[in-house]
Amino acid sequence: GAGVSQSPSNKVTEKGKDVELRCDPISGHTALYWYRQRLGQGLEFLIYFQGNSAPDKSGLPSDRFSAERTGESVSTLTIQRTQQEDSAVYLCASSLGPPGTGAQPQHFGDGTRLSIL
Amino acid sequence: SQQGEEDPQALSIQEGENATMNCSYKTSINNLQWYRQNSGRGLVHLILIRSNEREKHSGRLRVTLDTSKKSSSLLITASRAADTASYFCARAGGSYIPTFGRGTSLIVHP
To answer: Contact at 8 Å (CB) between B22 and B73?
Structure first.
């Protein structure tokens, strides 16, 4: 596709369940980012991938959160034992190169809106 | 915090007026980017200004950067109802991950 694709677009689940969110970056983009955006708030950085490795995972809020990226393309963000405070929009972005190389602009997907009941 | 912080938090204007949003940051940057987010959508990159630039234009957008004051401003001239969105700044470049503030919510009344 032409842009960053995220699925599902909406996810409603019960507290305690595990959820898996998917991101398909723009083809050829080596850098991939996950952010969390709570209602009416800014973006909270979660994790950054360069290729298949994650040089910076400092934003993951707890060990219930994990992410992986395979084949330098698709990435999945997994939240285990979901809590109500996990309710938010999870945004994925990709860029052509890593942050240090001329500050490539980020291209965002439309996010997954996660609601924990 | 290394985030950019936008000001004001909310701005309401009439169509045709100019809209100015400001961004302050705490640590030195190599460049700063502005993004727009329409309701329910992802962020869209608007403009990037490098630390050695003072002003940059793109259509109806004008961005300024004052590194001595660690601040940037985004001016939208002759605003339209379609400009209604949230606007975010992000510090970027060097070894830094782009990080975002809370944004300015702009409403342009037709």
So the answer is: yes
